[in-house]
């Protein structure tokens, strides 16, 4: 099934016109480290899916998907049209509705992180067939946006741009709430818990997949619309976390310290792990076809 005509057309529009679709600049999701961690967790690929990913990766990736997962943030100033694809906004309500919330600043439907995940998934289904899509970029966009949709404040309130306009102090450092969830919580954890080693944190998250979260993975994999992605469900989860954790008890110029960090860090851990597991699931379904539906992820 090909993407709807209006989505195919978006990929072919001249850049000068696409610049009209630009939304206000947003902070990067998860930061570089978060996106790399998501893709390092997403190593539970079938043999067929792993081979397809390897074939699509650019030479600069060195054979590692994780090296390319920050790519969509790195090219934002070149691919201006993709800016609204990193997030979705709600009108200050704690629920996400695709028909109401998935659009860019000009009201064009499908131009949000959920629409992007579904669209690039559909493009990758053309792997092995004659196609006009750049499937290398499709893979890198998909891997990045699956991470984005799991960062709670990438499904936040339109009024504050997902926490970007809420000024806070992270301990002694002035920043904004969105950046706290993108970068600060992860950086603090890596520094305080993992001896400044991102790889050590990744290994800890993987160990949790066989320990504390082992009973949850089957639930994380559940997806009614298997050909699509369940990205809609992931966005619903994120706005829930935004309301109940990210925004909760936060106001302008507040100082966020240990109380906020220790109660929110478990959410960040879980969302990174879920993003990795679900990215692997999507890639297995794309490249293994119907066979993947009966093959559970082998988390060992």
UniProtKB/TrEMBL annotation:
Keywords: Disulfide bond, Endonuclease, Glycoprotein, Hydrolase, Metal-binding, Nuclease, Signal. The keyword Hydrolase applies. The keyword Manganese does not apply. It is an enzyme of class 3 (hydrolase). One of its GO terms (molecular function) is metal ion binding. SUPFAM superfamilies: Phospholipase C/P1 nuclease (SSF48537). It catalyses: Endonucleolytic cleavage to 5'-phosphomononucleotide and 5'-phosphooligonucleotide end-products. Residues 1-29 form the signal peptide. One of its GO terms (biological process) is DNA catabolic process. Its EC number is 3.1.30.1. PANTHER family: ASPERGILLUS NUCLEASE S1, ENDONUCLEASE 4. Belongs to the nuclease type I family. This is Aspergillus nuclease S1. It comes from Urochloa decumbens.
